[in-house]
Amino acid sequence: MKESLHIYFNIENSSDIHEFLKNAALKNNVDSSFIEWIKEKGIPRLKNIDFNNAPNDDRFLAMIEIDEHYIKCEMDFKEPIEVRSCIITIINSIQEYINICKQLVKGGE
């Protein structure tokens, strides 16, 4: 996702999301609604995920790998809006993936 965000916003490098957002805000013709989504929804959603307790489950990894595959397929940027959509979908889905896998593990016990 970091690489795709750098390409989408034409930013060469950033050390973290906050530096990235600062650099993105300085660009002309920037997708300001996407930046606002990242600030107001994307970052808070990622911060609320307890990655230390993510399932150690092949199904969880497979879900993440599928998302990774989708975003890699869009990295040609023929349709930049698709990259944006992939990023939003991935961020919105991670907690759901964790919940699904935890339910599957509970159901199998």
Give the SSE order as H and E letters: HHHHH
> Which parts are unreliable, with pLDDT below 50 for 5 consecutive residues or more?
none
Which class best fits the helix and strand makeup?
Answer: mainly alpha
Largest sheet: none
Number of domains: 1
* Continuous helix count: 5
Q: What assembly state would you assign to the polypeptide chains in this entry?
A: single chain
Question: Percent helix among the residues?
Answer: over 70%
* Overall 3D form: elongated
Radius of gyration: 15 Å
Estimate the strand proportion.
under 5%
Mean pLDDT over the full residue set: 89
Give the distance, in angstroms, between the N- and C-terminal Cα atoms: 34 Å
Number of strands: 0
What does this structure look like?
The chain is mainly α and 109 residues long. The chain has one domain. The chain is 71% helix and 0% strand. The chain is built from 5 helices and no strands. It starts with a helix and ends with a helix. The mean pLDDT is 89.
Short description:
The chain is mostly helical. 71% of the residues lie in helices and 0% in strands.
Question: How would you summarize the topology of this molecule?
Answer:
Layout: H1 2-8, H2 17-25, H3 32-47, H4 58-73, H5 80-108
Helix pairs in contact: 2-3, 3-5, 4-5
